[in-house]
Every structure is written in structure tokens, then in C-alpha cells.
UniProtKB/TrEMBL annotation:
Bilayer topology annotation: Multi-pass membrane protein
UniProt keyword list: Cell membrane, Membrane, Transmembrane, Transmembrane helix
Keyword Transmembrane in annotation: yes
GO CC aspect terms: plasma membrane
Domain Prepilin type IV endopeptidase peptidase, first and last residues per copy: 113-222
GO annotation terms (biological process): signal peptide processing
Official protein name in the record: Peptidase A24A N-terminal domain-containing protein
Domain Prepilin peptidase A24 N-terminal span(s) in chain numbering: 12-92
GO molecular function, one term: aspartic-type endopeptidase activity
Pfam families in alphabetical order: A24_N_bact, Peptidase_A24
Main location: membrane
Lineage: Bacteria, Candidatus Zambryskiibacteriota
Family of this protein: Belongs to the peptidase A24 family.
Keyword Transmembrane helix: yes
Length: 272
């Protein structure tokens, strides 16, 4: 039974990931989400067997069946990681499928919705360096809905409310302050909006940990990119003033903290 539920969670996530690719590529382009998929190079409408999540990309060798042009690796990355995260959410919230209580099922549904939205934000921000308000607003509605249901339907209590509201305020307040002080040069307002929802989804200790992880990961990636461009012959130099999308790091920090249930204060004690 556990194996079947695990397989279902991963497969369902991969299918959702396939749909998310459509959203990412067509968002704000004027194209409808419901149109038939086609090759980005030759325009040929794809057959059903070319749209099977993961399998089609691998079997085609990452190339169009007709024109042989390369297919963006984003397709398989989104499908795989959405499937993987759907599986991990189910395992975490359902305690490896041993807890099927309404509260745990709600955790899975909310977790899957959050993963789907964050996957779109992650790749869209990487490509366009902007977080559409509609995505931030949708995530905020999910976070508020989760907060209200846990508080009033499952009687989470005052401690729950304090921990999550404080996390949201600190998350949003800190990034909002950075945006205000820098005039948007250090960080975008969209990042602060996104942070509000991420903070509300986590208790205070995990929220602080997610914020720390985001800056650690972001700084590490930036330093690696700077070192790489200086060592290579690339003419496009990356400096400390180069704009780098921050939402992917926020999302990575959130995911790490969510699954690890990290407490940054406990982690810091390891080095003292």
C-alpha cells in the first residue's frame, strides 16, 4: 500500500509538473493555457506519446522528433522535481502514510498547492527576473486558508497563531526593509510579497531558518558565479552589482526548512 501511494504521489506530481511547464512558458505571452503543445522550433503539434511526463523527454533524447532541435531541459527538471516534492510532502505530512487524519490530508493538499505555485515562481523568476502579482496573491490565499483552517477547524491554538504570524511579519518585514532602504536595488518588492506567504506557512523557528538558508544559498551561488566568470574567458562579467533573482533562493530556503524542520538557533549552537 505504501509503495502504491508513493508511486501515485510521484506520478501525480510529474503530471502536474507537465502542466506547470505550460504555465511557465505561456504565462503573460497572450497564449491560452488550454492550447495544444507544439515544438518551440518548428511549430509542429506534439502527439500524445510525446507528452508523457519524464518518459517522452528521455525516449526522444531531449530533441524534437521531427526537426531534431533541442528541447529545453526545463521540461524534465520541472516534471521530476514536482514529482519528487509531491512524494516528499506526502511522506512528511502523512508520516510515511501511517497517518490519514483530516489534518494530515489537509497538510498534503496545501503542500501540493504550495509546491505547484513555487515551482512556477522559481522558473519564471529565473527566466524573467520578476514575480507576477497573481502568483504571489494565489500563494497568499493558500497560506491564509491553511492558517485559518488549522486555527479554527483543527484548534491549533494561540501558540500556533503567534508562531506563524510572527514568522510572516519578520519574513516580510526584513525583506521589505531591504527593498525600501535600497530603493529596489538589493531586492525586489515581489520577493517581500512572496516572503509574507512563505513566513505564514512556517512557524517562527523554521521561518527564521528559511530566511537564513535563502541568504546563505544566495551568497554562495553569487560568489561561485563571480569566481567562474573571472576564471573563464566570458566577456559578461558578474559583479556584486549584477542583478540575480532572489526568489529561487527564498524557495530553496523554504523547502529546506520545511522538510528539515530546522531551527537556526539550534544549528548555530553546533558551532559554539
Amino acid at each position: 500500500m505504501e509503495s502504491l501511494l508513493s508511486l501515485f504521489s510521484f506520478a501525480f506530481g510529474a503530471i502536474i509538473g507537465s502542466f506547470l511547464n505550460v504555465v511557465i512558458f505561456r504565462f503573460n505571452t497572450g497564449k491560452t493555457i488550454g492550447g495544444r503543445s507544439c515544438c518551440a522550433s518548428c511549430g509542429r503539434t506534439l502527439s500524445w506519446f510525446e507528452l508523457i511526463p519524464l518518459f517522452s523527454f528521455i525516449s526522444l533524447g531531449g530533441k524534437c522528433r521531427k526537426c531534431k532541435s533541442s528541447i529545453s531541459s526545463q521540461y524534465i527538471l520541472v516534471e521530476f522535481f514536482t514529482g519528487l516534492l509531491f512524494l516528499l510532502v506526502a511522506l512528511k505530512e502523512l508520516s510515511f502514510f501511517s497517518d490519514l487524519s483530516p489534518e494530515s490530508v489537509l497538510g498534503v493538499v496545501v503542500g501540493w498547492l504550495v509546491v505547484a505555485i513555487l515551482m512556477v515562481v522559481f522558473f519564471y523568476d529565473l527566466k524573467h527576473m520578476i514575480i507576477p502579482d497573481s502568483l504571489s496573491q494565489t500563494l497568499f490565499l493558500v497560506a491564509v486558508g491553511n492558517f485559518v483552517l488549522n486555527l479554527f477547524l483543527f484548534n491549533a491554538g494561540v501558540g500556533y497563531a503567534y508562531a506563524h504570524l510572527t514568522s510572516a511579519l519578520i519574513f516580510a518585514g526584513f525583506l521589505g526593509l531591504l527593498w525600501l532602504i535600497s530603493g529596489g536595488r538589493w531586492i525586489g518588492l515581489g520577493d517581500a510579497k512572496l516572503a509574507t506567504s512563505l513566513g505564514l506557512l512556517l512557524p517562527l523557528s523554521s521561518g527564521l531558518s528559511a530566511l537564513a538558508f535563502a541568504f546563505w544559498i544566495g551568497a554562495s551561488v553569487a560568489l561561485v558565479k563571480i569566481a567562474h566568470t573571472r576564471l573563464s574567458e566570458s566577456q559578461k562579467r558578474i559583479t556584486m552589482k549584477t542583478e540575480i533573482p532572489f526568489a529561487p533562493f527564498l524557495i530553496a530556503g523554504f523547502i529546506l526548512s520545511y522538510f528539515m524542520q530546522s531551527d537556526i538557533f539550534h544549528i548555530s549552537n553546533l558551532f559554539l
